Amino acid sequence: MKGIVFTEFLELVESKFGLEMVDQIITQSELVSGGSYTSIGTYEFGEMLQLISNLSKNTEVSTDDLLLAYGEHFFNVIETSYPQMLAMYQGPIEMLASIENHIHVEVKKIYHDAELPTFTIIEQTENTLSMIYQSSRSMHMFGLGLMNRTFKHFNAAAEIRHEKLKDDGTEVQFSIKMI
Amino acid sequence: MQTPQSDVYQRALARERNARKEAERILEAKSTELYHLTQALTQSNAKLEVLLQEKKSELSGLIHHILDPYILVDLDGNIIKLNKAAVELFDYDNLIKKAGKVNLIHLVSPEDRMRLSTAFMDMVEDGYIKEIEVKITAADGTVRDLQINASVLYDNNNNPTAAQGIARDITALKQLEAQKDKLYEKLESQNEELNEYAHVVSHDLKSPLRSVNALIQWIKTDDKNVFDPSMDQYFGMIDKSVKKMENLISDILRYSKSEVDYSEETLVNVGDLISEVQEHIDVPANISIVIESQMPTVQVQKGKLEQVIQNLMTNAIKFTPQADGLITWKYKSVDGKHQFAIRDNGIGIEEKYFDKIFKVFQSLKASEHSTGIGLSIVKKVLISMGGEIWLQSTLGKGTTFYFTLPQS
Ligand code: HEM
Known about the structure:
The complex is a heterodimer.
Chain A: H1 3-17, H2 19-28, H3 45-59, H4 63-81, H5 83-86, H6 92-96, H7 99-110, E1 118-124, E2 128-134, H8 140-153, E3 158-164, E4 171-178
Helix pairs in contact in A: 1-2, 1-4, 2-3, 4-8
Chain B: H1 4-65, E1 70-74, E2 79-82, H2 84-90, H3 92-99, H4 113-126, E3 128-137, E4 143-154, E5 160-169, H5 171-222, H6 229-257, E6 266-269, H7 270-280, E7 287-291, E8 297-300, H8 302-318, E9 325-334, E10 337-344, H9 374-384, E11 388-394, E12 398-406
Parallel strand pairs in B: 7-9
Antiparallel strand pairs in B: 1-2, 1-5, 3-4, 4-5, 6-8, 9-10, 10-12, 11-12
Helix pairs in contact in B: 5-6, 7-8, 8-9
Protoporphyrin IX containing FE binds next to α5, α7 and α8 of chain A.
């Protein structure tokens, strides 16, 4: 997993819960990196997993809610670092439908060791999109956060339902309806 | 004494420091990687540069040495590049000195400018133009005819960027063509005159003949009792000579007209045509006529072929006096031509006469029916149809005439 995901995460934790919480979850986890992350590095996904679950334990906020909040926060990174990529789209449905075949393809070109999910489109109309998220990392709630912000970015609103096709969250169907 | 708070900061600081070191290490590795990449790129760039230069000079050498004028223009027709031949033809150096910038339009004669610009627009649309003809005034002041082939050049995204053209100087060709046309016209009118002349002459020649004929008839009837019987014989001879003279004149008329047939070509079955002709000429009882081969269907002016067949048949009949006279027609395709043969088993012709018989007024056996003009008409007509004629003959055994027609 790319270092930027860790550094942004820890910054978010620090701003919401303070440096002590950062220190605590790092100390609680068994990290090869020792908790030192640089945005340009690449680290084990397992470290993110431990950090999140320890944060959840310490704060009594579910990992799902944490990941959702983090996804929403991460969109800021996208907005500041890749504005030209966002500028290519006229609307949120069009953009979300392009993650698999365009956005993440470009991401893979920039970071060839990026670990990205697969989105399979089931149905797409002007205002609705139904697609299946697949990833061994089960970060669909992170995706949901990104989706929420995507609509906000285009000054639009949506009703987004998600349904786990596998209990471990490695396969999740999203049904998106712009309102 | 350290508080837990400062422990947290200590650790955070240590992590930050490690992260910075890690980042520096990664960046260091990246810059080394980049350096090597740049190195490799520079090298392959240099190689490409050399290659490009080679291709460029090859190409410009090629263009420079083309003997026909070559011009490269932008899409507005402004000249970008010319080869040596073009620079010399248009006196380009001088034009540039005078105007600073030269457009294609300025190279051609004023009356051709409109046409050239239309052609240029067509080219931008279609991608090319072929064989556009324009007139120019060359550096040496002469007016020249150029034939231009040109095409649009496109960039990598398939957008038109420029156009190139090659001009061919066809002045000499044009002059030759004009000369040929003139000559042809002259020939045609001369031919017409000649035919008219022949017509008038033969007409004028015939009327005194008719007078002679009439006068003789009068003498014969008026002075019947005065003449002794031997005179009858002489009158007979005079009669014959007059008739022969008349035939001669008719033949000249026929000969002069034989080529003048502007009818449409049609599909003609040669076998059917032979049978048709056979019905028109009375075939004497001693002669049988056989068509031995399958005859083809040919695309010709029917009247002409009819004339050929009729002349050859009457000719064969005339020179086949014996009781078991046999005339056979044969056909085969030879070297992409139709080849016909008509054979008789008549008196035959000596080889020394083979050439003569096709000439006007050469008859082997003069008779009142024959002026010997028939075969010369046949030859003339066949040549006008793109064919040929020749013969084989053995004295006392018979003659075979061969003639060909093109297979279109
Ligand atoms: C310009 C837009 C985007 C950029 C530049 C971008 C970039 C990235 C990057 C760098 C990662 C981390 C990869 C790694 O750590 O190896 C990532 C992960 C992810 N992205 Fe995007 N992304 C974009 C838009 C989106 C959107 C709109 C969604 C909406 C669903 C999305 C869903 C995800 C998810 C769910 C992950 C987590 C990895 C996983 O689940 O396997 N991304 N993206």
